[in-house]
Amino acid sequence: MKRTATSSKQATHDRIVDAAARAIRRSGYNGTGVADIMKEAGLTHGGFYAHFASRDAMLAEAADRAAGESVAMMERIAASLPPDQALPAMLEAYLSKPHLQQVETGCATAALASEMPRQTAEVRRAHTRRIKEMIDLVSRQLPDWGQPGAHERAMVTIATMVGTLALARAVDDDALSDALRHAALKQLTPTHS
């Protein structure tokens, strides 16, 4: 019986973190309230403290979950293709129109980067760890992985990807949004047309 209660509590906890991960990407950290997240998770506000010590603790888990989903998506792409095709496919997926439009489930770093400096150390640490994972993942896809300069190229690639997605989402001009994404793809994957 205790095991079922523990797994049920974990499932509820995960449901709250999932709702919070969507909410922070949709509304930002300051626009994400405990009551709204609990409601979205189908729970009452009163049950929150059975799962988290504080709102910041929940936001840190949500940040980790949201950013981890981006890393996992990129890892799945990398694992499914030969090394020479993995990075272009990762870039295409990240800078795709569907990813652009999926703010709630898309890259948390692109959605929240401008808010990061004002977040708690716990929230920033979660994002930093995931950003490092993305850099390492991209670095491993480069033909000169392990050589001087590969890590730096991976950092520039991630910065370009995230910045491009953030700008493409920020503008209210669909043609400019598409042009930003296509220009980045062209620069990052010279064979892209």
- How far apart lie the N and C ends? 59 Å
Q: Helical residue percent?
A: over 70%
The CATH class designation of the domain at 54-188 is Mainly Alpha
Q: Strand fraction band?
A: under 5%
**What's the order of the H and E elements?**
HHHHHHHHH
Quickly count the helices.
9
Notes on the structure:
This protein is an all-alpha fold and 193 residues long. The chain has a domain at 54-188: Tetracycline Repressor, domain 2 (Orthogonal Bundle), CATH 1.10.357.10. The protein is 72% helix and 0% strand. It contains nine helices and no strands. It has helices at residues 2-27, 34-40, 55-80, 83-94, 97-101, 108-112, 121-141, 150-170, 174-188. The radius of gyration is 18 Å and the shape is globular.
Short description:
The chain has 193 residues and is mainly alpha-helical. It has helices at 2-27, 34-40, 55-80, 83-94, 97-101, 108-112, 121-141, 150-170, 174-188.
Annotation keywords:
193 residues; mainly alpha; Tetracycline Repressor, domain 2; globular
Detail the topology: elements first, then pairings:
Layout: H1 2-27, H2 34-40, H3 55-80, H4 83-94, H5 97-101, H6 108-112, H7 121-141, H8 150-170, H9 174-188
